[in-house]
Amino acid sequence: MTRHFLPALLTAAVFLAGLAMAQAPAANPKVLLKTTKGDIAIELYPAKAPATVKNFLTYVESKFYDGLIFHRVMPGFMIQTGGMTAEISQKPGNPPIKNEASNGLKNDRGTVAMARKEEVHTATSQFFINLVNNDGLNYRGNAPDQFGYCVFGKVVSGMDVVDAIAQVPTGSRRGHANVPLEPIVILSATVVAAK
What we know:
By secondary structure, the protein is an alpha+beta fold. It is 21% helix and 27% strand. Strand 3 and strand 4 form a beta hairpin. The radius of gyration is 21 Å and the shape is globular.
């Protein structure tokens, strides 16, 4: 009886293993930014930038971005947000994270990358959306002036909103240049279910 049972058990195990392998991989997480100019949906790439995506999702889930503005708008370059209030005050964030710019993703039009200071590993909450292919922001080596800016996602809908933000009049406010004269606010940032 054992001789007849063993092949059936082995066949069932192979079938179940095949079923498990046939399951579709988990979809990349998506975040919806509802802004005063419209909605921007961003697909995140945790396989390429795990620490960065985890950091970003921590801010999203804690509602950190809600109420912040796009504080740096530079047509032909990028739009930046994630750290300033409408009063142009820096909102304190979490400790800086490791720069994962060497992940192979490029700062191409529509990609989302972490902003940082001159030092390589100083990104916290601020991020930007590339308006054009910004090759000069890509990883080129380990020297501080070659390390680049970590891409961790891409706009999958709402580039028309991004482009509209890029066209607003800007000026200087409280020591910051390229600030929209009329605040463009993130009303909410939420993780959205994969479809």
